[in-house]
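debug: dumping io for the single-chain case to check the tokenizer round-trip. Nothing else runs in this session.
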Amino acid sequence: SSVNALSNDQRWSIAELAHRINGVKMGSFEETKLFRSLAVALNDRTALEAMLTDPDSASYKAGLISLAQAVKLYAWIGRDDQALMQTLQSVANRLKALLTQETLVWGP
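debug: decoded output
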């Protein structure tokens, strides 16, 4: 994903989506829809395609990992904006919680 090549509109929409994700119930359908929108905003095709598969599948989990990595990368790029960075970190933590809740074993 080309996180560096994001337009101002995309940046605004990522911040907006991150706030909305943190405001909905974890594991809800609404959260899943927002994660998909976030994958689109971050140009993360891997996550987007994976999120259209069965939530219990390995590829879906790989999509969540991909999205978490894109979110972390974006937070690092925009690290001069402390509030946004914290919001994005919360989103990454939610993704990680979803993965551990599914008893996924993280690699080395």
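debug: round-trip ok. Residues 58-77 form the longest helix (20 residues).
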